[in-house]
Amino acid sequence: MRALFPFLLSAVLAFAAPVHGQEAAAPSSVLTVDLEKIARESDYGQRVNGLYQAEILTLQSQAKQVEAELIAEEQDLVAQRDIVSPEEFKELSQAFDRKVVAIREDQNSKQSELQAKQRDDQRNLLRLIAPILYEIVSARGASVLIDRRNIVLDLSSVDITDEAIAKMNETLGDGSTPTEATQDDQKTLDIPKD
Fold first, then answer.
1. Neighbour count for residue 114 (Cβ, 10 Å)
2. Contact of 164 with 33, CB cutoff 8 Å
3. Which of 84, 161, 168 is nearest to 127 (CA)?
4. DSSP type of residue 159
5. Per DSSP, what are the bridge partners of residue 159?
């Protein structure tokens, strides 16, 4: 009987303990997704982020070039201080200051335009991924999808981020070649309202 007890205890514990990976088997009505990871790791997101980074580098390069030109111009202006009359120097200084302000405003405008373009690209990414996310949510029998940034604790089985990235890469690629999903910017999302 003593030899049978460990066997029976093992059998009871085996049936009582959850099976590893069992959490994926039970459908959840709530799923999570990491939208930042999709933007970072999907082919489409990587292409858009690469273009954005290239534009930032171009803007920074232009700013450094303009800064070097302004420094040289300022040094020329300082050198003229002893050559020209005080009134003429004052006019030259004011003209230089106006030029610096105009250049600064232009650079700020370019930065604002670039940031607005990035926000538009993020909205476009969400518009393109929405049908894919809906398809996954429906296939899993869920009714709610929450961004992981708003989650304190969840099981990995409710996170659909990697699945969404794979489907997005398959459906949209990097977005450089127009597909049915990217061609029609006026396309409305075909998501039923239950």
1. 15
2. yes
3. 168
4. B
5. 32
Please give the single-letter amino acid code of residue 143: S
pTM score of the predicted model: 0.65
With respect to residue 69, please indicate whether it lies within any of the assigned structural domains: yes
Provide the domain count of the chain. 1
Q: What is the SS3 assignment for 42?
A: coil
Beta pairing, strands 144-147 & 30-33: parallel
Eight-class DSSP state of 20: T
Domain that holds residue 133: 29-173
Give residue-wise pLDDT tens across range 2-45.
Answer: 444 333 333 333 333 444 444 444 577 899 999 999 999 999 99
Q: Which of 133, 156, 128 is nearest to 144 (CA)?
A: 133
Q: Write out the two tokens for 36.
A: 């930042």
